[in-house]
Task: inverse folding
């Protein structure tokens, strides 16, 4: 089923960081770029921590925003310095520490002391950490992992905050390819998108048994590409366990799976009319996020979309 939703979303052109606040049922736009405190206007990642603070990763370090002022984390040789100012990704772990992926490896900012510990910041580990998207993930058991062309690197952190066990895992023989995209499942495990494999989507569990890491990949029934034209640039799962997949042509695909990972419902949504020109957009990377009202926000280079909550048909 194809649904045309070109009149159902709000389109903004964004050239700097915008903070949205609800005021009498409408949006007030508050700019917090350079002079107001943001260290640099190129933003690659934003994380809201368990206390409600925003952590903003830029090309000039990390900005921690409390709604009034900024606290900065930048490159330095001190115990509180990052190993690079070029921030590619941010992640909050289950202990509320903030991890930053940079061009020089990983940084962990302690949730209490703000002391920074560096990981994978020496050759050749820098190279395989920077192979792909610099994103860090955490398994249901608490182990960490990231993806690279070398394989899936899985590691633990000991009680002192130092690197513990570490292992590079390869894809099972029947999968034939490591994932191009990984997202956290709202239930358990992670979703692995593997376009080069006969099966395109797997429910995956990274496990640790007595410091012996292993990966289990359960295939879905999806064996065809998500889109006839274009390619997938992002994916997210909502609170109702529906997967939403976005293409670079601004087509949005919703996929509902049963407990056996078989597709039971699939809908394709065209976000733009054919006569709308979006060639000015460089849609190679976007961020998708659901808000508390279950509206889907899609942000990219020069693009911000808000898709209102869809009613079940």
Result:
């Amino acid at each position: 089923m194809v649904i045309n939703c070109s009149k159902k979303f709000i389109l903004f052109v964004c050239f700097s960081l915008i903070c949205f606040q609800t005021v009498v049922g409408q949006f007030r736009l508050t700019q917090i770029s350079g002079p107001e405190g943001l260290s640099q206007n190129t933003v690659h990642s934003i994380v809201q921590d368990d206390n409600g603070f925003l952590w903003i990763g830029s090309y000039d370090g990390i900005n921690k925003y409390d709604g009034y002022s900024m606290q900065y984390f930048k490159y330095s040789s001190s115990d509180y310095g990052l190993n690079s100012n070029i921030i590619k990704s941010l992640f909050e772990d289950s202990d509320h520490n903030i991890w930053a992926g940079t061009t020089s490896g990983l940084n962990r900012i302690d949730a209490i002391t703000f002391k920074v510990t560096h990981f994978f910041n020496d050759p050749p580990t820098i190279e395989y950490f920077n192979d792909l998207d610099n994103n860090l993930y955490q398994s249901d058991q608490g182990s960490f992992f990231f993806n690279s062309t070398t394989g899936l690197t899985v590691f633990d952190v000991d009680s002192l905050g130092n690197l513990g066990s570490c292992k590079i895992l390869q894809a099972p023989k029947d999968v034939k390819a490591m994932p191009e995209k990984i997202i956290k499942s709202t239930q358990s495990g992670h979703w692995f998108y593997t376009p080069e494999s006969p099966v395109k989507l797997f429910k995956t569990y990274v496990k640790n048994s007595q410091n012996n890491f292993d990966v289990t990949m359960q295939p879905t029934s999806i064996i065809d590409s998500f889109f006839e034209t274009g390619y997938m640039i992002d994916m997210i799962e909502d609170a109702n366990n529906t997967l939403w997949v976005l293409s670079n042509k601004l087509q949005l695909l919703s996929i509902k799976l049963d407990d056996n990972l078989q597709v039971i419902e699939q809908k394709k949504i065209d976000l733009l009319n054919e006569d709308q020109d979006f060639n000015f957009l460089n849609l190679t990377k976007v961020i998708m996020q659901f808000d508390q009202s279950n509206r889907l926000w899609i942000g990219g280079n020069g693009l911000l979309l808000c898709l209102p909550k869809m009613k079940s048909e």
Helices lie at 125-129. Residues 1-22+234-256+264-313 form one domain. The two ends are 11 Å apart (CA to CA). Confidence is low (pLDDT under 50) at residues 1-27.
